[in-house]
What we know:
InterPro entries: Cyclophilin-like_dom_sf, Cyclophilin-type_PPIase_dom
Distance between the termini: 171 Å
GO molecular function: cyclosporin A binding; peptidyl-prolyl cis-trans isomerase activity
Strand order of the largest sheet: 3-4-6-5-7-2-1-8-9
Number of helices: 8
Number of strands: 9
GO cellular component, one term: cytoplasm
Structural class: alpha+beta
Shape: elongated
Organism: Spodoptera littoralis
CATH superfamily of one domain: Cyclophilin-like
Protein name: PPIase cyclophilin-type domain-containing protein
Order of helices and strands: HHHHHEEHEEEEEHEEH
Amino acid sequence: MKLIDAILKANTKKRGKCTSPPPETSTSDMGIKPVKKKIPHKYAFVKARVDTSPPRYNAVAKLRNLQNWRRRLDRLRLENLYLMMLIKKTYFMGGRVDSHWDYEPLRPMQYYQHRVDFLKRTRRENLILYERILTSDARVETTAELNRAWVRNRRKIVEQALGTFVLFPPIPCEEIEDLAFVAPPNVKRPRVYIKLGIKEGAVIGELCLELFTDTCPKTCHLFLELLDGDTLGHGYVNTCFYRKVPKLYWSGGDVIYNNGFGCYAQRGRVIPIGAENYHFPHSMAGLLSMRVTMDDEMCGIFNITFKPLPQLDLRNVVFGRVVRPSTTYTIMSQMGNALSSRPIIELLSSRRKEAGRWIFGQPNTRLASRSSSFLRKLLLS
């Protein structure tokens, strides 16, 4: 037997003894997974006793948790704020913080470096303080200001010392030469205020007028109606005093033509009202009287007197007075010219108090319309 035959025979015997299937018929090559035997758990028969349903909603408990979370958030915020303060402090100190040393320096050198740092920090603080001293303003008054104040106060003291000493200052009282014009004890007379001024010029001042409503109610009503301005555009405001005789009287209040030739009739009347009475005479200065025409008509034109004028008795109705002393009244008495209308003095505004509120006079709008129509007719003619 040859060697090759012996080898082939031995291989044939080994293949016959092998019980495993050939490689091409194995289950792994065919893609079939081996089945594992499932062993049941030893407590599989025990049933669960825990409730697996979701918990009930409890608003109170949730709020309590929110409070805890809020406190926790506040605590974290405070901690962060504290850390930021430490970081800022470290930055302002120049970045010097305690750090780990790789090697411990000599003790004398530590003291030396500490003294050097302290000296630098002290110099820097001194420079900052010196700059603040140079740039900051003084919180107290300077010596020059105190000297000027003392000069002013000393001059004031000397001027007051030269004047007469008044222990009890006099109580201002109204000037009424005739006691017949004093209001009765239980009567409160209304007061009105009119402001006078030069046309397109300066303001002279304000006059306070007291009306005798207890004796001349109709005349006072006519005066107040024109002072406030009626609904038709008539009023005393913006009218002028067309006649000014110094130290004698002033005349004004023409709401129709503004020259003393007009006559106003109240709304709802065909003719003006007549003279109400001549109860008061023109026996003192500062009286307010309304002119009466030859036909016994009061057209709203009034006078302000500067001296007793008995020649006007039984011709003008006295229905008020000027509250004196008054600087404006004194200036008025020195102004004017009997032969000229210059300077033109206008009644700029008026006001009076009624039921706790101020009533202001409306300007006269009829004078402007009449003047424009007159100029138009003059140009056309």
